[in-house]
Amino acid sequence: MRVLLLGDFSGVHRYLKEGLIKNGVQVTLLSDEDGWKKLGGADSCLYGIGIPQVEAASSNVRRWWIGKRQKAIGALAKQADVVQIMCLRSLCYNSCEQLCRDIKSNAKFFSLAGGMDIFEHRAWKTGKYRYYYYDNKAANDIPYNNNTPRQQILNDTEEYIFEQLDGVIPLLYEYEEPYREQPKRRRTIRMPVNTDRITYRENTVKGKIVFSCSGWGNRADDKGTKYILEAMRIIQEKYPHDVECRITTPVPLNQYLEDITEANVIIDQCFSYGYGMSAVQSMARGRIVMSGAEPETLKALSLESCPIVNILPSVEDIVAKMEQIIEQRNQIPQWGIESRRHIERYHNYVDIAKEFLDCWAE
Known about the structure:
By secondary structure, this protein is of the alpha/beta class. It has two domains: 2-192 and 349-361, Glycogen Phosphorylase B (Rossmann fold); 209-346, Rossmann fold, CATH 3.40.50. Helix content is 42%, strand content 12%. A five-stranded parallel sheet has the order 2-1-3-4-5, with helices on both faces. Strands 7-6-8-9-10 form a five-stranded parallel sheet, sandwiched between helices. The two termini are 15 Å apart.
């Protein structure tokens, strides 16, 4: 079996590729490595987004380059049994009709639902979420609110790509909900992580409990960082001898995996119903993670429980959850072990790859 994976966010496709290889599948991953995250694992670039020569080129040269890449991707797709894109936006460059035809000529065609798209925006606009990260953004900062010719083209392209798909595979509840009534929606599959390569590190408190938040750079509004930083400020002032609150800057994945071992608790995000790849990788390292673990998520992921400390977009809620950890600091090493066990049981990359193989075969 031959599989072609197009695009990557936070390592989902990289770990899926590694799991598929363990299952005896021939896999090619084309990825621009999610920008500054420098994910690695790709066999070649997708569109070369982030390559200085491409970014600095004129619009005509970029169109030519993307057209050239689309022909190369199409040639690979014609040899594949399954083609899976990271999201609907993965192919939204130039006209993608011929590329979709190339994909459909031989392969089954799937997309993950794991990020912003036109269907997710509609779900928010129609009130399907109790809260959502769009609530924290100015209307003009939400691309799908902009009724410009360029945005309309992108919207239409996403709709076109969706119509070509054989199936959409959500990764979390918030990405399952927009497709709930769509016949193409497949079951939600948990995110994979390479539990062989990302090793457990004992979670030991060395004096002060270290809480760490990445800050998320230009995605701070999406993650609810302002609530987290205010909660950290309150806790630092209230418990100056018991805690150290750190705010880190975005770094490449390999550096991130090293940096998190210096913290006891990772405060990831508070606008999500579920937990993403940063949380999964942090848990694999044995860190306690504060993020989303709402009842909707447990149901979507077929989990009875989860060691994630569920937090809401509320300073008071985050402060209360941080205080619970402080009051039970002697439990931190055991909670770190439980984090690792959860990932080994529910997010092992080889097992998740088997779930994708089953899903593609349905």
